[in-house]
Specification:
With about 160 residues, the chain is α/β, with parallel strands linked by helices. It contains three helices and seven strands.
């Protein structure tokens, strides 16, 4: 099994570097830019009816939330190569499974692992599906309860090493 626990996020070095660069940008130039926008909008007068001011404050809130999210994610991340697949589902592996009869291939882990260019879906290891399939081997079956309360059958058909 991987040394990543459900509260730990496994990241490739490339993913870590990409997210660290985003955090550095947001916490440095990003904060300065939004502060300038807020100050500029504040100078326009009455704050109650100042749409630019409120939009800038909303943007500031989103930036600060993303900074907090990235800070925690990077602090708790396990960085390294994808775990080599041994036919067992674990965080950082690419899983092919029949879910409710439909075959689906996905990366099990954080959405932050794969950038948008990989095109692979990512299911969190902390999701109901992720928790249900952790540790299963090819050919094993289980069920999990979806958010809507329905029990969904899952059969693991392949487990592969993530190549990015």
């Amino acid at each position: 099994m991987s040394d990543a626990t459900p509260t730990t996020t496994w990241l490739t070095q490339e993913s870590y570097d990409r997210l660290k660069a985003e955090l550095d940008e947001l916490s440095g130039p990003g904060r300065l830019d939004i502060a300038k926008k807020i100050e500029s909008a504040r100078e326009e007068g009455d704050l109650k009816e100042n749409g630019g001011y409120h939009a800038a404050k909303d943007e500031q809130g989103k930036i600060e939330a993303r900074i907090r999210q990235l800070t925690v994610l990077l602090r708790d991340a396990t960085v390294g190569e994808a775990p080599e697949s041994h036919g067992v589902v674990e965080t950082g592996t690419v899983v092919t499974a029949k879910i409710a009869g439909d075959e689906t291939t996905f990366l099990l882990g954080s959405r932050e692992i794969a950038d948008d260019s990989t095109g692979i879906e990512v299911y969190p290891a902390t999701s109901a599906l992720g928790q249900a399939i952790q540790g299963l081997k090819i050919g094993e079956k289980t069920t999990y309860t979806a958010p809507n309360g329905k029990d969904i059958a899952v059969e693991i058909t392949n487990v592969a090493t993530y190549s990015g």
